[in-house]
Amino acid sequence: MSQQISPREELLKIQKSLWKRNNEIINNSIIVKEADFMKYERKYKTAVANYERVATHDEMLSAINEARLVYVGDYHTCNQSQRSFLRILKAVIPQNQKAVLGLELIHKRHQPLLDDFTAGNIDEKVFLKKIGLRQHWVFDLWANFKPLFDIAKYYNLPVAGIDAAGVKAGLRERDEATAERIVELLGKYPEHKLFVMIGDLHLAHLPEIVRSMSAGDELKDVILYQNSDAIYWKLAEQDLEHRVEVVKMSENEFCRMHTPPIVCQQSYINWLEHEEGEIDFSDSRTSFLELVDHISKFLEIDLGEEREKVDVYTCGDLSFFGQLEESGKFSASELKSLKRQILASESYFIAEKRVVYLANLSINHASEEAAHFIKHVCSGPERKRTPEDAFFANVLHEGLAFFGSKLINPKRKCFHKKEFESLIAYFETIRVPQDRRLEFETACIVLEFLKTGKRDLSNRKIISALKPDLFFSATHGLGYMIGDRLFYAMMAERVDKNFIRQLFYDSWREEGEALTAYYDLNKKLKSVKIPKRM
Is the Cα torsion angle 222, 228, 234, 236 positive or negative in sign? Predict the structure, then answer.
């Protein structure tokens, strides 16, 4: 008899399987490798293979504040990478506004245009056209990087292009040219802190070149790597991957652990697919079904022939709207609501037609909709419900969908009570902007449901008055919370897979069943602790 492994061990096994498959895809995508690439990669992997100890975010910020030169590693296609740097700047700049941002995506020769853009002399469209970003920067993901320019404009920070090499330069030549540019900027801004954002691979090489060029000068630097695969798996072995966001690797080296490896990989794979044209039907469907298989296999759910009965569409193909209209199963208001979801970049599963719409191929979007699909196959089609039943059934569906996405991306976060309370507190200090009205109203309703019991008649009145947008937003908020707690309850072995699997099969068709099931589950999971980030 084989030894039974825990849900946690099985989940890590699934993650590693996804990670290995993604590595294969990425490695196969690199047709021509530079001569020094393997050597560079080996040195980088050695540099990020281990860590000394877990560190705090404040400890990392303290090291940044003491340094003159701050290297920030970038995983170009992963927007969490740029957002992480943005969070660092927001924490550091208000107390230390003498700073310069050095960015790899802009070449030194375009500095005059960059100065004009940050000064507001030319607009974004003209700037991007004149620097030929797509031709110069292979990762044409301007939207990911634009917030960095916005914060620089807000605080009036100089921004410098640090790529200084020729088109045919190799990795070593590129780093040497970049190092010269960094030394030049240190001299130009002697009283400023210089932030250098550059591809992670360069961080195992570039700092030592800069030090050699600055021999004799006291140069205090700090290196911020990010999302080391090796460190992630080491943390996972200690059940720390959910809680640790920073580790210290040496006196002046840290690694920011904000995104799981498979999410970073998926961002690169998504970028690759976009480079080949719009994501086509067969590719998006295959990716979706792989996630369906991972979730259903973990839960030991056999979908049989039903697995194939799904169509997957992306933002590049909206032809399914014609099918929905021709089917006659959707009212004009329902079709209008679906269109609003598309404009809001929201993914969803349309059970009546077995159609999945992916606003993008992010692993969170796709895995959440994969879980929706599995739930539909297991519990069957929805029936007409009272507003109250529909509300709580949707909360449960969203909870299980969020749980499914956590099986793929365990670091995915959602708002809980404290976050909703903080949001309300913030909105009380300002006049709520029109474009954030839904956010404010959702927080109010979520908190109202968290403090009332299942027999509270006021809930019924609230539900009956909800407009579609607020109905779905509120059920998402409540559902995500319960799905998050369900995941951590499983990881703590307070509920087993049999219990969770049964939730996927439950249909709660009788009137009042969905309400009772929600409050019973909420009560069962109430004491489950959500890990705090270190």
Answer: positive
Higher-confidence position of 300 and 458: 300
Q: Is the pLDDT of residue 255 over 80?
A: yes
Spatial contact of 332 and 322, defined as CB atoms under 8 Å apart: no
Residue 133 main-chain phi, psi, to 5 deg: -55, -45
Q: What is the pLDDT of residues 332-381, one digit of tens each?
A: 777 777 777 766 657 788 887 788 887 666 788 889 999 999 999 999 98
Question: pLDDT: is 489 or 215 the higher one?
Answer: 489
Q: How far apart are CA 353 and CA 338, in angstroms?
A: 13
Helices (H) and strands (E) in the chain, counts: 23, 11
Q: Which pairing describes strands 99-107 and 193-199: parallel, antiparallel, or unpaired?
A: parallel
Q: How far apart are CA 48 and CA 395, in angstroms?
A: 41
Domain boundaries, the chain: 60-271, 278-381, 384-528
d(CA 15, CA 478): 27
**What DSSP designation does 493 have?**
T
Bridge partners, 311 (sequence order): 355
Whole-model pTM? Answer: 0.74
The dihedral region occupied by 215, where left means phi > 0, alpha psi between -120 and 50, and beta the remainder, is beta
Q: 22: helix, coil or strand?
A: helix
Q: State the pLDDT at residue 278.
A: 32
Alpha carbon distance 356, 350 (integer Å): 6
Is residue 38 within 8 Å of residue 200, measured between CB atoms? Answer: no
Three-class HEC string of 316-377: CCCCHHHHHHHHCCCCHHHHHHHHHHHHCCCCEEEHHHCEEEECCCCHHHHHHHHHHHHHHH
3-state secondary structure 510-534: CCCHHHHHHHHHHHHHCCCCCCCCC
Q: What fold, for 60-271?
A: Rossmann fold (3.40.50)
217-225 mean pLDDT:
91
